[in-house]
Design brief:
mainly alpha
Amino acid sequence: MIPSPQAPYVPRGSPLICATIQYPILKTIYNLYLHPLSKVPGPPSWSASRLPFAHALIKGTLVQDLEKLHRQYGPVLRIAPDDVTFSHPDAWIDIFQGRPNHVYFPKDPVYWTQQLSPIPSVLGIYDLSAHARVRKQLAPDLTARAVRAQEPMIQRYVNLLVERLGKIVSADTTSQNIEVDMVQWFNFTTFDIIGDLGFGESFDCLENSLDLSHFQQREDGRIGVLGTVLSLYRFCAYQMHPALAEEDGSRPCTTNCGQGTTPA
């Protein structure tokens, strides 16, 4: 009898191992050369994988990195296999301004279906019909004429900011170099403007040089709302720039910010 040739030994799991190795290679080749966005300018590493985008986002340098890439590659930039960012004013009109017989670009469900607040804002509403209803209510206050009408009020607080800074400089006659925390003074200006626009009166941050934490210690409802805004502002700022948390000596809260939750 002639013995039959013995079949080659194939370790169990070899097809799975081969597929695990081959898939990212084939996916990278597809993203770089066969993807519908393969002709869009952008760094190859960002176009091939979402890892560079995720790394920049976690590191807190995404905005700075995108600015540098836009300067290098132009106003249309591919920042991930399926993502393109624009830095040209025409893109704002084409993407965000709805017009008759114009294709509407819906928000990305990855970013917009989960909201921090149970009451969505006009910026975060994902449903098209609900967004149109809220936008119709807000549109009269956001026209060019309505915005220009607020200029005198905003200019008044800007003038007050310059006046207060001038007093600080003139009060110190012993030093040629005076250090001023401009972040604090810009926050004073911003919240005075927000108070006037949202509540009809200023919070007098500029006038009294009030620390922003002062508002979170107040009990009335108006300040409670502002306290929540402050906490969310700090949370977003720290998430984008972790170094701010180290300088401030605190960490942002992760849930129910502004509702008495202790920092994480």
